UniProtKB/TrEMBL annotation:
Its main location: membrane. One of its GO terms (cellular component) is plasma membrane. It comes from the Bacteria. This is ATPase. Belongs to the cation transport ATPase (P-type) (TC 3.A.3) family. Type IIA subfamily. It comes from Nitrosospira lacus. It is a multi-pass membrane protein.
Length: 885
């Protein structure tokens, strides 16, 4: 039998312990055998390994290969600028890797676990004496003492319990404090047993003596932490897309390079010269600036999200959140405020709201609320705060609103709360005599009441009114309120303790709830408009979950699945159940929450999970994007999350989703922009090989575009603000690719060809004006050749300046956007122009990039091509809007 199913004596015997605790030598032996009572840290990669990964992913490997080829070519043909190309590519790899690592390391440091969930010291019996020992030294068989406010240091079986109530929210997700006693239990699961306290939970009230039976990683707390460790983090959709994009670009680049290397051999080009040009073609097709631009765009999005109270711990999670199709959200502390408030009163046959308190001040109900509690006061940040059961805090705050003076009361006795009695009674000595105050469940308090306080008078409590009380309770329960009955009586000194609760006078009923956050209903509505399904997954009672769901507009007639029912479901049954339009999971455990997430992912959903407890950590890690609460969240939950809400506000998720959706669109915008310039970089090489003309663009000049002038405008496109309608559209399909055919066709076969035409036209314009004729060989350092390549480079930049406006949207006209709406865009264009002027007109620029000054006429020749490209794309967009919806 399990320990919670044993009697106290049998529990002692099963662990070879006794009332006086363990001998010290036996405790030391068990510590050696079972290890310290400490939850191992969630397994993390070493910093060195994390750092190395930033330089060894697939796209980085492509760049390493390109750099190596450049150095090989420089070794065989010095003076071609290939060494500069190799060093520049290595610089890109290093800068991007260091920046990516730093971003994630900084986010990691911001949420380094405090690891204070378990107490540091605990009172334990050793050799018959009560000692204060480190919690890490607890072993199975130890006998410990606990009081209200204490954190439970290990899984324990209660031996003695006086008014014990415990908050299990961090383990089970259930928000209401639960009564516990020392009686043997018939439950199968220890965590549902009334005689068990779980590590990591908190004693809300009472005093207890308990027998430790599981410590460290053997506790329920430790099992959940282990479940988190063995749950591997899945690649985000963006990471998958970047890998797919990397493979596509690598395959395309190498294929084109090999084809033209073979063409070169067929045309009789020398081997090494041919290899250099093949490398040039490969480099021209690899957008070296893409990876740093993606990283910077994600980093900028994280900064915007921090301003909206979402801390991003893992860069790709920014875009993943934007593609989310389902949010599995915890209730307590996420949708609700994690505190109890009084919502309704039932006095003298009528319902009242707390706002009506002025007309109810004479009711004795407020005296019961004032004195019937076990709260303690403590100072926090210079203010007095109440510690204990949130329900008692809410009642006391209500009483203080109604009673201005507090007569001197001295507590004499207490009849503690337990799960059988379901009530608490306290006896006080007052100036007017002894008073007993009682509160608890109506079904246990009402049978003890003979009279009732009605309209300022005490009247006999008859059967019809008793029925009205049960009807009132049912009405409030349907609204998701927890209902308490409050009663009192005058007590004659010397009354036997077992008769103190007889002949009570009922005051009335109080309905209270953990209220939803004010912003949540609007956030739920925005999720619905955005095509995002929200599923509540909670450890709370299904009635409470249903009422909260109705109140926040999440559900009306939901399918409710409780943990026991979920446990009996097959995988297919669960996936079919998830098709329900409205669904709530209640009374679920940590492994079940993770199972729900995995089932949703198998259905092709992109799943975001919110949570704050230890019980949420495995699901947070298994999800596509895990979202932890920053204020109320446990350290294990924060470690497992991709995003942390700094204000614990569900509404902040919607703002973060909006930013995430914008990121995906923005990446496509600057991909179009960057890939467009690949074509005018590639065409000159093709023309050189096929038509035997001077090479219009050198490799170093390609580098000037990819890693110089293009970078800031591309980054500005990555910083575009979300469109007004971004949350009015459904999430993108999981099958939708970042790099899709419309983007490729537009970049390569439309915009890219227009830019290539402009670049080649400018090149031949300068050659023609300089008297060049077809077949003429130009020296690489001749002024005419340098001017022609400079004109080709400058024309590409002119076209890219226009292209940055064109790429702001694939369908909408550039004239629908505010020209000054993105200041970074204007700054990027200004810097792009400054860079090309420095490259063309400064001696250092001429030396590094093989350029020379060109006349104003060349610029004027190139500008009409840019205007024509804008006009043609506007025509394309107009036709697209007209013939497609």
């Amino acid at each position: 039998m399990k320990i919670h199913q044993l009697t106290v004596e049998q529990a002692y015997a099963s662990l070879h312990s006794s009332l006086i605790g363990l001998p010290e030598h036996e405790a030391r032996r068990r510590l050696q055998e079972y290890g310290p009572n400490r939850v191992e840290e969630v397994r993390e990669e070493s910093l060195l390994l994390s750092f190395a990964k930033e330089f060894t992913h697939f796209f980085a490997l492509i760049l390493w290969l390109a750099a190596m080829l450049a150095f090989v070519a420089e070794w065989n043909e010095p003076g071609q600028g290939m060494a500069m190309l190799g060093y520049a590519i290595i610089g890109v790899i290093l800068i991007n890797g260091v920046f990516s690592f730093w971003q994630e390391y900084r986010a990691h440091k911001a949420v380094v676990a405090l690891r204070n969930l378990l107490p540091h010291q605990v009172k334990a019996m050793r050799d018959g004496a009560l000692r204060q020992i480190p919690a890490a030294e607890l072993v199975p068989g130890d006998v410990i003492l606990l009081a209200d406010g204490d954190a439970v240091p290990a899984d324990c079986r209660l031996l003695e319990a006086f008014g014990v109530r415990v908050n299990n929210a961090t383990i089970t997700g259930e928000s209401l404090p639960l009564a516990r006693n020392s009686e043997r239990s018939s439950q199968d699961e220890a965590q549902n047993s009334r005689n068990v306290l779980l590590a990591g939970t908190t004693m809300v009230s009472g005093e207890a003596k308990a027998l430790v039976y599981a410590t460290g990683m053997h506790s329920e707390f430790g099992k959940i932490a282990h479940l988190t460790q063995v749950t591997g983090a899945a690649l985000s959709p963006l990471q998958v897309e970047i890998m797919r994009l990397s493979r596509f670009i690598a395959t395309l680049s190498v294929l084109i390079g090999v084809v033209f290397f073979l063409i070169g051999l067929w045309l009789g080009l020398p081997f090494w010269q041919n290899l250099i040009f093949a490398i040039g073609i490969i480099v021209a097709n690899v957008p070296e600036g893409l990876l740093p631009t993606v990283t910077l765009a994600l980093a900028m999005a994280t900064q915007r999200m921090v301003k909206r109270n979402a801390l991003v711990c893992h860069l790709p999670a920014v875009e993943t959140l934007g593609s989310t199709t389902v949010i599995c959200t915890d209730k307590t502390g996420t949708l609700t405020q994690n505190r109890m408030t009084i919502e309704k009163l039932f006095l003298s046959g009528k319902f009242y709201l707390p706002a009506d308190i002025a007309q109810l001040r004479d009711s004795p109900l407020f005296a019961v609320a004032m004195y019937c509690h076990n709260l303690k006061q403590s100072e926090h940040e210079g203010k007095q705060v109440l510690l204990g059961d949130p329900m008692e805090v809410a009642l006391l705050e209500l009483a203080r609103m109604a009673i201005s003076a507090h007569p001197d009361h001295k507590r004499i006795d207490e009849i503690p709360f337990d799960t059988d009695r379901k009530r608490l009674s306290l006896l006080y000595k007052t100036p007017g005599g002894n008073m007993l105050y009682c509160k608890g469940a109506l079904e246990t308090v009402l049978p003890l009441c003979r009279d009732i306080h009605l309209n300022g008078r005490i009247q006999t409590l008859d059967d019809p009114y008793r029925q009205r009380l049960f009807q009132a309770q049912e009405s409030m329960a349907e609204e998701g309120l927890r209902v308490l009955a409050l009663a009192y009586r005058r007590s004659v000194p010397g009354t036997a303790r077992e008769r103190l609760e007889e002949e009570l006078i009922l005051c009335g009923l109080v309905g209270m709830e953990d209220p939803p956050r004010a912003e949540v209903p609007a956030a739920i509505a925005r999720c619905r408009a955005a095509g995002i399904k929200v599923i509540m997954v909670t450890g709370d009672h299904p009635h409470t979950a249903r009422a909260i769901g109705r109140e926040i507009g999440l559900t009306q007639t939901p399918l409710i699945i409780v943990g026991d029912e979920l446990r009996r479901m097959s995988q297919i049954q669960l996936q079919l159940a998830l098709d329900a339009e409205e669904i709530i999971f209640a009374r679920v455990g940590a492994d079940q929450k993770m199972r729900i997430v995995q089932a949703l992912k198998k259905k092709g959903e992109i799943v975001a999970v919110t949570g704050d407890g230890v019980n949420d950590a495995p699901a947070l890690k298994a999800a596509d994007v895990g979202i932890s609460m920053g204020i109320s969240g446990t350290d294990v939950a924060k470690q497992s999350a991709d995003i942390i809400l700094l204000d614990d506000n569900f509404a902040s998720i919607v703002a973060a989703i909006e930013e995430g959706r914008a990121v995906f669109e923005n990446i496509r915008k600057f991909m179009t922009y960057i890939l467009t310039s690949n074509v005018p970089e590639l065409i000159p090489y093709l023309a050189f090989v096929l038509f035997k003309i001077p090479l219009p663009l050198t490799i170093v000049q390609i580098l000037a575009v990819d890693l110089g002038t293009d970078m800031l405008p591309a980054l500005a496109l990555g910083a575009e603000a979300p469109r007004d309608d971004v949350m009015q559209r459904p999430p993108r399909a999981r099958s939708e690719r970042l790099l899709h055919w419309p983007l490729l066709l537009r970049a390569y076969l439309f915009l890219g060809l227009l830019e290539a035409a402009a670049a080649m036209a400018a090149f031949f314009y300068v050659l023609h004006n300089g008297g060049w004729y077809y077949g003429q060989i130009l020296a690489p350092d001749s002024t005419l050749y340098l001017q022609a390549t400079t004109a080709c480079l400058s024309a590409i930049i002119v076209m890219q300046v226009m292209n940055v406006f064109i790429c702001r949207h694939p369908r909408e006209s550039v004239f629908r956007f505010a020209w000054f709406g993105n200041r970074l865009l204007l700054l990027g264009i200004a810097l792009e122009i400054i860079l090309i002027l420095l490259i063309v007109y400064m001696p250092l620029g001429n030396s590094l990039f093989g350029t020379t000054p060109i006349g104003v006429d060349v610029w004027l020749y190139a500008i009409p091509f840019g205007v024509a490209m804008l006009a043609l794309d506007e025509l394309r967009k107009a036709l697209l809007r007209r013939f497609t919806k």
